[in-house]
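INTERNAL AUDIT FORM
Audit reference: QA-55
Scope: verify that the stored structure record matches its stored sequence.
Auditor: D.O.
Record contents follow.
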Amino acid sequence: MFDCDGTLMDTEPCADAARRALFARRGHIYDDAARACLVGLSVAQGGEVMARLFGHNAAQLAGELAQELLAQVAHGAQPMPGATDLLRRLTGRVPIAVASNGPRVLLDKSLARGGLSRWLPITVSADDVPSPKPHPACYLAACTALGVDPASALAVEDSPVGARAAHAAGMTVLGVGGLTRGPYVHAHVPALDDAALRRWLAGW
């Protein structure tokens, strides 16, 4: 089970640009502290956080954020290094799916832009479950769709929020990148194109 944003697709620059636009619109600076509060959250959760920061309506902010994200992803999202090759290698060997904290329209657009949809017929978005990550519902739904026991499944995540969700689902969690070290991660690699990841998956 792969997360999408920041794991399979390099959408974090898109998310930063979208958040920065909303912050600037309301006279606020989007800095590292603000980013740390928002990374890995669903659009609705991001709206709630920004509402607390700005004092505006959470649903309105979430709607604005969704539109900004769609525009940014449509022009700037690219597959993460190694993502395309990894999916190609895994297809037919093990069942694979995506469990994303993004809305359905953003998830579909992102995977299509990256050319990854062909390998991922099963995807679960934040719109498909009652509670987004860090709740485990997204990962549990993906396991159900694939017909696999969460205890035998691997989650590949780039954010602490996602790692916590997969851990709560009872899955083994592989952290990718610099943000996913900690109690919810069983193993870690710096990137999807890292040689250590291929060795690790060979024994999975």
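Auditor finding: record pair retrieved intact. The mean pLDDT is 91.
Action required: none
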